[in-house]
Amino acid sequence: MMRQTTLSVALEVKPESYDHLSGLLDKLRDRRNPDPSGGTGPFADFLKLVPSVHFMSLNVFPGFDYDPLFVIEANFDGEPGPFWAQLEAAIGPDLRAMLRCCKCPLDNDAPLFTSVTAPDSRAPIAPYLQRRSLTPTVYHQGNRGMTRDRILAERELFLATRKELADAGGSGAGPYRSLTPAGIHARLRGALRPGFDWLDQKPPARITFVQNITDWARLSVFILLVLLALSLPGLILKLEMPWVRFAVLLGVIFAGIALLLKRIGVALPGTATPTKFSFLTFFFKQLIPLALFALLYLAVATAVTTPIAAALTGRPLFGSAEAMFVWLAWGLLSLPVTVAGIVLWLRIIERRDAAQDAPPVDPHMLREMARREDWIPQNHMGSVVLIKPGILRAILIRVGHRGLGLVLRIVARSGYLGSMRTIHFAHWAMVNNKSRLMFFSNFDQTWESYLDDFIEKAHAGLTLAWCCGVGFPPTRFLVKDGASHGSQFKQWARHSMTVSRFWYSAYKDLTAEQVERNFRIALGLRKRSLSEKEAATWILDL
User: H-type helices in 67-208, by residue range?
Assistant: First the structure.
């Protein structure tokens, strides 16, 4: 099964070259895509030269706090190496001219950059771009497991299905009118098979068994490591005192922290927003999985630490594996106290955060963004924000993004993100020595409706991913309020965005929902026959 890859390259731009680079991007767009929508037009050669790309954009952020930033964002099938080579073959001279507007890096990639940007250079660009590629901290693939070729092939099948029904008299007339659902399936399959021989082939699995096991294994290992890290203070403390004193100390500390959180945990005046998210509800819903993970953690930790301790000391640390298990259990018992302490620290920081009630937006840039949006069913956005300082925030953003990314691989497999199915590809990545957070999304519908969907249906995840940004609306406990401040959040997002000067979509007329609809139609037509019940459900997509 071919993997789907999401990555980006972020390069600092010489300030004096910002306008020139913006002009190069506009010329590339105008030459390849004469319509403002970014549609394919005469860009059909790009389909052939870069046969793996789903979406790609070239952007330059003006850089109000840093020097300008040139970003290449790409979503494609397969490995990065072949993709960069294909991209160079397609627009190599344009990319070289753009790279000459960028700063020479200060690390070991400097010689490679110099060789690529030297006058009359013919050195390959692909190796440099691959070296500078950034791995997303969080990413979402709306139609996971669907290669570009498969999406395009199933689109052609859908169009052929519509044509066959229209030629036969349209819906409600012609030879299909008198047939049962199973009969319609059989007749339609027979009419389409000559032009689509792949209907007789077994459909490739979108998510293989190995990928499924890997996703669950990575999430499980992540949770176990988090449990171990949060248990460490209690494990160390337990070595120094008997269990009675240890239990009393935990109770006193937890009670004190709980009282403080009750007092400072409420939203400040004017910053609270209605939200359906509740920590208690979440906890009780996840109580059984959490208990199972706790038992798994104790079993794994005991099995791993007992032989290690024996190898280091020449004997079991506590005399037996059972004693090791008890010690680890006491450490796990301290976990709520550790979490409460971190939450208290976080809440103190959150109450001191500054937020932008009216972030400045360049009117000219806002007009340019609006002019290039909503020409086709799909849209694109890119955003870069400063990350709030501090060691706690540095840890939380990394752990939070890692956990969110692993959870999305489990819960967002069928095109849905929560109850939304409007995103094709989206990702966050950290740039400039992890001092800035970058976000890109390829989505359906308008920018306003896209953010409205997030605000209403997935504000907790959105707040978790973006609350570390400087100026983000007031947040509580990482996931509450924040993005729920609808108008304030939209202004903040606009402030951080730039014009999508060059944007390419391999299937500009398809929404994420239509891709899934085409998939279901093709899946049904691959089957030689359907029962009346199966056919009645399948026919709803026609």
Answer: 80-99, 110-117, 126-131, 148-167, 181-192
